[in-house]
Amino acid sequence: MARRLRIKTTPRFDRRLASFLKAHPELVGKTEAAINSLARTPFDPRNKTHALSGPLKGLWAASISYHYRLVFLLSDDEIILVNIGSHDEVY
Fold first, then answer.
1. Region for residue 40 given its phi and psi (left: phi exceeds 0; alpha: psi -120 to 50; beta: otherwise)
2. In a 3-state reduction of DSSP, which class is residue 66?
3. Superfamily for 6-90?
4. How far apart are CA 53 and CA 29, in angstroms?
5. What is the pLDDT of residues 8-57, one digit of tens each?
6. Which of 25, 33, 36, 77 lies at a C-alpha separation of 20 to 30 Å from 42?
7. Cα-based angle 37, 18, 57 (whole degrees, multiple of 5)
8. Any idea where the domains of the chain sit in the sequence?
9. Are 36 and 28 in contact (CB under 8 A)?
């Protein structure tokens, strides 16, 4: 069994997450599930994980739902969550 990656957050992400969940309480479960899925298997096709380019090169994104994304840094043993929001908000 693969080991679970450690999840860390930035202060900016923590603020954005609080605002996001306040605005979208119906997505609390999906957001938790997406973060847990990333920790277990970052490249599971259900996450729709993809590398970003341009000014966000070096970062990755994964889907929470059709409209919402998590943006993160990925290393061998951890994921650092840096942003959350709609496609237009995070890219």
1. alpha
2. coil
3. RelE-like (3.30.2310.20)
4. 29
5. 999 999 999 999 999 999 999 999 999 999 999 999 999 999 999 999 99
6. 25
7. 60
8. 6-90
9. no
